[in-house]
Specification:
- The chain is mainly beta and about 170 residues long.
- It is about 10% helix and about 45% strand.
- Strands 1, 2, 4, 5, 7 and 10 form a six-stranded antiparallel β-sheet that branches.
- Strand 8 and strand 9 form a beta hairpin.
- The radius of gyration is 22 Å and the shape is elongated.
- It starts with a helix and ends in a 9-residue tail after the last strand.
- The N terminus and C terminus are likely disordered.
Length: about 170
Amino acid sequence: MFKFAQGICVFALAAAGLYAQTTPNEPVQETRTSGIVGIVQGQTARLNALNPGVASPLMGVPCSGLLTFLDDGGKLLKSKTVTVAPGASSPIELDSVIDLALTVDQRREIRATITIPPVLPPSGSTTAVAPVCKLIGTLEIFNTIDGRTLVTLGTVHVVPGPAATPGG
């Protein structure tokens, strides 16, 4: 009898562990990041978020997202929640002097992220729903005075999302 009870306990613990690892009703959030790029005094970083969806009045869907700038240690430098219409884009800018207070001899390594908010599964569903829209990011570094572009990064990678979600 003891062996039977012991077996039931082991089975229950294993099942609980599997249940804890699979959370099918959990909303799906997608975060994409650029690579690291440097910025110095007199430069501005701009993250453009493009909604490539079909423009209205066709079947376009506005996309919401959280645009952020992080330093190379993961510290949040600036963020903005946006809703982008189909076929349009929305930017966030990080000024080296105003936002980062960089002086002549300083350089800051930064990256940009775009987080698409989680999508709740339909009521009663056991499967998570992927975000219904995409925002395509382009990170640009340009001279603040003359607007001349110095660097453009367009390749992004999906990463585990930060705890913050768009909300205002």
